[in-house]
Amino acid sequence: MAIDLIGIGSAANDGTGDPLRTAFNKVNNMFTELYNDETTGEVSSITATAPLARDSAVGAVTISLADLGIATGKIADDAVTADKLANSINTAIAANTAKVTNATHTGDVTGSAALTIAANAVTTAKVLNDNITHDKLENRYTASGSITTYTGAVTVDWSAATNFVMGSSLSGAIEFDFTNFKTGQVLTIHNLTGSQTITLDSNAATSETFNKLGGNDYDGSATNALMIECISDSANAVFNYSVLTYVSDTTPS
User: What are the structural domains, with CATH classification, of the chain?
Assistant: First the structure.
């Protein structure tokens, strides 16, 4: 109920105020509303325009806050504790404690808080000198492979190894088809023997050129090493190669 003030007139006994019965009806209505609010715990219509004096009320006084009634400016700094935050906020904070931006971390980060590095984010400047070991290089520079097909077309994947060993002597004409080659990479095929024809090819998009270095030819009656360098891995791939026979010998001189 809105406030209903008693009309008291403009001056004493001027006859403009509320009649006595009307005045006491207003009093009764106001007391009835206050009484009902107190007994039901719904005293929510009191509006304070200034701080309430501590000792101005007698007995228990309950003040209810309107929904959305507390502005940020009414909350003291550092006054909201973790216990007062909703579970959803606490859970979100816990899940993101490891997400640190522009920070320096020392020591190990393990478990669910492990950090990830964005793709292509490690530059040369971030790597210490002499800290990329041979084991960290890809297989095309570090691994050995084997060829177990001795006739027909054989795929030689340059990304799989830096050298390949023939498992046995050639049994027929063979074609080595090169794939995944990179400019500057050198590949060797060892233990190459057998009096058969050898052809070199690649899966270059347009064409390939093979340049033989020196005057040595493949000798099927001996054991050979075929060494190929990729000069260009473009659509028009270019390779230089040489072939040499070899024997086991611990005295080079």
Answer: 19-47+58-69 (no CATH), 135-245 (2.60.120)
